[in-house]
Amino acid sequence: MGKRLIQQARGKGGPTYRSPSFRYKGSARYPKDLKKLRGKVVDIIHCSGHTTPLINIKFENGEDGLTIAPEDIYVGKEIASGKNAKIETGNIVPLEGIPEGTLIYNIEKVPGDGGKFVRSSGAFARVIAKLNGAVIVQLPSKKQKRFNASCRASIGVCAGGGRTDKPFLKAGNRHYLMKARNKLYPRSSGVAMNSIDHPFGGSSSSHKGRPTQAPRNAPPGRKVGMIRPKRSGRRKG
Description:
Layout: H1 6-12, E1 38-45, E2 54-59, E3 64-68, E4 78-80, E5 92-94, E6 103-105, E7 125-131, E8 134-138, E9 144-148, E10 152-155, H2 171-180
């Protein structure tokens, strides 16, 4: 019989596992109408929902916008946007207007979505090549991905680099960090749980746990661990 795993309970979306977004300062996205606007950085903000600092930009049309802060940003810096904007730190430019080899961050997946890729502290991507209507970008994982040339990106490197170099030293420090985003901490392994809580749980014998390869016809509550291979053994013929 299947069990309600923690992964399933988190996916349901109850208050125990829901992200406390009411504590966050706002969504760090590009405004939709940002073709040739200019703005000025009026504040640098810390938000518990982001690993990078955020900058509050006051645009010339009167709108405010929150976005990911780059390195070497400061209050009062002018931020330009559009295809003809200069290639300077913090400027928001479509990929078609960015030269090859430029470091970028906060890249849109679809033109106008506000930015989806390369948003964590210290991260950056690099423009590799340009094709017909597409731009090849090398992501922080070294994987190369093709983007629409109209997708926007910011010039520079995400601020907050080196955040993971400092050790936590105490479990309490990590507890408060995880609590800020309502992440599950500490994580327990399946074999350390009771049999009612996980298919790998229980210790009725000297050998704890279950095989980590789930049967092919296992129900959803049992199908955890490694995926069963389509075939095994040496191929004949």
